[in-house]
Write the structure tokens for this entry.
Amino acid sequence: MTEARKVPLLNVANILTMARLALVPVFLFSLFEAGGFDTTWRLIAFGIFAVASFTDHIDGTLARKHGLITDFGKIADPIADKALTGSALVGLSMLDVLPWWITITIAVREVGITLLRFWVIRYGVIPASRGGKAKTLAQVIAIGLFVLPQNDVLELIAWAIMAVALVLTIVTGIDYVIRAFKMKARAGRAVL
């Protein structure tokens, strides 16, 4: 029996994940600089948010394609994702760009599903669904649009995409809860 190839902790996928995490305070600094509504700083904040969001796609693709999946990456990647989107939502709410109820709804869902995944981890992993991936994409696009300096047309588009993101956030949250309880029930029947 051959020994499985050891994946180094320091690999390109994990470095991109850590870079995304490191960009969170830089993004927040840019978002709030000059009172939070300076056009240049908002464009800089948007650029940082866009680059950080894109690294999420790249690190996952590289990890799967080149066999660079590590336990560290499995934990750090979702933390980096939630830190980026969560800090952006909180920042936008602090600037009165987004109502707090939107930020709280999304945050409660994200934290709740993360805890739910840990609750059922001994029975298996709940993989991200297509709806969950669409939710993430809609959230990132909507947040990015709200970070940009606003005009009437852009604001209307941002609100429309945020509405889609909210619906997907709630629907996929319910779906994850149902899947978790089904997984737990199947594991319980398997023991009997």
